[in-house]
């Protein structure tokens, strides 16, 4: 085996380890942003762009543009570069905060947070990543982007159907629990009556039997 081959074999575990570390750090899921904001509350405008080539070094900046409902053109809203955010739109001065990746120039989450949403914030938001991959002797640039149409509502509207179904859920959960308790008592009595044999069964098996239906109870007794 040549010296070069030996060296490569020695380096293999290290390389694997390095890959693993970058894979762990690169765990990223592209979740779509919410689109319904509530007036006078905060709202997170989500924009996630996962880096496909996790092992390649990259740096990214994020720019946001905004087009209000009554406007026809996008205007610059916010820029985040070199870990510094800059609000460009006077309508949003003091009202925007960075909610994306922190302490890194390799941004994958470009989300921003609107404080005190107003009805004038209704409109279309566009977020563009400018990501530069650095290979050993060249650079490669991509610009993944997302468009989010945001609607501002007075408060979160909750349909009657949703409330009714929640009530039904609780009613059925409580009903089933009561039924289970009654069934357990019924089975317990039957089994005790069956004598010592059944009492020797472990507590776990007791429960298993109790959760079966009445018919099963009867057949257990028959078998004994
Ligand atoms: C923020 O952006 C404006 C133009 O949009 C620019 O004039 C200003 O210098 C920027 N501020 C910082 C701190 O980058
Ligand atoms: C987003 O920013 C807001 C305002 O600064 C903050 O309250 C919130 O905790 C942030 N959320 C995340 C996930 O960083
Ligand atoms: C939102 O606006 C109200 C008044 O318009 C103000 O009292 C409140 O402090 C603001 N909240 C935030 C988080 O900026
Ligand atoms: C937005 O992304 C698409 C691909 O998803 C790309 O073709 C397009 O050039 C991007 N637009 C901008 C403004 O970067």
Automatic annotation (TrEMBL):
<keyword id="KW-0739">Sodium transport</keyword>
<keyword id="KW-0915">Sodium</keyword>
<keyword id="KW-0894">Sodium channel</keyword>
<protein>
    <recommendedName>
        <fullName>Sodium channel regulatory subunit beta-3</fullName>
    </recommendedName>
</protein>
<keyword id="KW-0813">Transport</keyword>
<comment type="subunit">
    <text>A voltage-gated sodium (Nav) channel consists of an ion-conducting pore-forming alpha subunit functional on its own that is regulated by one or more beta subunits. Forms homodimers and homotrimers. SCN3B is non-covalently associated with alpha subunits and induces the formation of alpha subunit oligomers, including trimers. Interacts with SCN5A/Nav1.5; regulatory subunit of SCN5A/Nav1.5. Interacts with SCN7A/Nav2.1; probable regulatory subunit of SCN7A/Nav2.1. Interacts with SCN10A; regulatory subunit of SCN10A/Nav1.8.</text>
</comment>
<keyword id="KW-0325">Glycoprotein</keyword>
<keyword id="KW-0406">Ion transport</keyword>
<comment type="similarity">
    <text>Belongs to the sodium channel auxiliary subunit SCN3B (TC 8.A.17) family.</text>
</comment>
<dbReference type="InterPro" id="IPR013106">
    <property type="entry name" value="Ig_V-set"/>
</dbReference>
<keyword id="KW-1003">Cell membrane</keyword>
<keyword id="KW-0472">Membrane</keyword>
<keyword id="KW-0407">Ion channel</keyword>
<keyword id="KW-1015">Disulfide bond</keyword>
<keyword id="KW-0812">Transmembrane</keyword>
<feature type="domain" description="Ig-like">
    <location>
        <begin position="13"/>
        <end position="143"/>
    </location>
</feature>
<dbReference type="GO" id="GO:0001518">
    <property type="term" value="C:voltage-gated sodium channel complex"/>
</dbReference>
<feature type="transmembrane region" description="Helical">
    <location>
        <begin position="167"/>
        <end position="188"/>
    </location>
</feature>
<dbReference type="Pfam" id="PF07686">
    <property type="entry name" value="V-set"/>
</dbReference>
<dbReference type="GO" id="GO:0044325">
    <property type="term" value="F:transmembrane transporter binding"/>
</dbReference>
<feature type="signal peptide">
    <location>
        <begin position="1"/>
        <end position="26"/>
    </location>
</feature>
<dbReference type="InterPro" id="IPR036179">
    <property type="entry name" value="Ig-like_dom_sf"/>
</dbReference>
<dbReference type="InterPro" id="IPR007110">
    <property type="entry name" value="Ig-like_dom"/>
</dbReference>
<dbReference type="GO" id="GO:0086002">
    <property type="term" value="P:cardiac muscle cell action potential involved in contraction"/>
</dbReference>
<keyword id="KW-0851">Voltage-gated channel</keyword>
<dbReference type="InterPro" id="IPR013783">
    <property type="entry name" value="Ig-like_fold"/>
</dbReference>
<dbReference type="GO" id="GO:0019871">
    <property type="term" value="F:sodium channel inhibitor activity"/>
</dbReference>
<dbReference type="GO" id="GO:0005272">
    <property type="term" value="F:sodium channel activity"/>
</dbReference>
<dbReference type="InterPro" id="IPR027098">
    <property type="entry name" value="Na_channel_b1/b3"/>
</dbReference>
<keyword id="KW-1133">Transmembrane helix</keyword>
<keyword id="KW-0732">Signal</keyword>
<dbReference type="GO" id="GO:0086091">
    <property type="term" value="P:regulation of heart rate by cardiac conduction"/>
</dbReference>
<keyword id="KW-0393">Immunoglobulin domain</keyword>
């Amino acid at each position: 085996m040549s010296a070069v081959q030996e060296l490569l074999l020695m380096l293999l575990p290290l390389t694997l380890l390095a890959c693993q570390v970058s894979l762990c750090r690169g765990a990223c899921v592209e979740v779509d942003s919410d689109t319904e904001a509530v007036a006078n509350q905060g709202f997170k405008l989500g924009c996630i762009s996962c880096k496909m080539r996790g092992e390649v070094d990259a740096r990214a900046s994020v720019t946001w543009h905004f087009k209000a409902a009554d406007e026809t053109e996008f205007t610059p809203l916010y820029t985040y570069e070199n870990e510094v955010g800059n609000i460009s739109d006077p309508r949003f001065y003091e009202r925007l905060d960075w909610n994306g990746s922190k302490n890194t120039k390799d941004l994958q989450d470009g989300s921003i947070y609107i404080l005190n949403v107003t009805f004038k914030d209704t409109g279309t938001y566009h977020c563009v990543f400018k990501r530069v991959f650095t290979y050993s002797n060249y650079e490669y640039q991509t610009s993944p982007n997302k468009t989010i149409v945001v609607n501002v509502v007075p408060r979160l509207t909750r349909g009657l159907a949703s409330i009714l179904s929640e009530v039904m859920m609780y009613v059925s959960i409580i009903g089933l629990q009561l039924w289970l308790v009654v069934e357990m008592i019924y089975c317990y009595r039957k089994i005790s009556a069956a004598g010592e044999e059944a009492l020797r069964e472990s507590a776990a098996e007791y429960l298993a039997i109790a959760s079966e239906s009445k018919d099963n109870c009867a057949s257990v007794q028959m078998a004994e």
